[in-house]
Design brief:
- This protein has 188 residues and is mostly helical.
- Helices cover 71% and strands 0% of the residues.
- It has nine helices and no strands.
- Helix 1 packs across helix 2.
- The longest helix has 30 residues.
- It is globular and about 50 Å long.
Length: 188
Amino acid sequence: KKKLWEFSRGNSFSRKTTKRSLEIEVFSELDSGQPEGCEKILMVLILQHPQILYDIRIKEEFVNIEFLSNNLDKLRTAILEIHEFEKDVDSIKLAQQLDAAGFGSFVSSLKGLVSDLFIEENVSEDDALSGWGYNLNLYNLAHLERERQSVEAQMTESSEERAIEYRKQINELKQKIHHMQVAFGDVS
């Protein structure tokens, strides 16, 4: 069974195409724990499964993602506007609307990740929701790690206390991610 959250690490990618360059960038970001890679995966999940935005919790989480990329932020705004005014938005209708709004090439480059990330349109909504939850946890972990590093660099008494709290939150999130991986059969 293909999973939404799998990705191919260790593959040798060529930089010949935009698609491959984006894949290299995303895998590099994921491997180094950068939130940018997680943001792109979450966006591809929404592009492939816009119906999950009808779940209020998912929509709120999507709205609250702090995209580091202006392009992803603009794309999110366009997706939310389309979703607000269109009923029963599927990935095809969403792609057509985004293309008409000038996001066609950017969406195509993001969707190019599908072949290596196994984020496919034909998976069940439950699998899409599981993939969303898992990748949102990875995104949150990357942001917490970044915040912890920033706080630890300050080396004040209050920053030390905040760093301890961040470490605690990071450990809890890592345990949650590990439990999800065990439930998915990815690790024992």
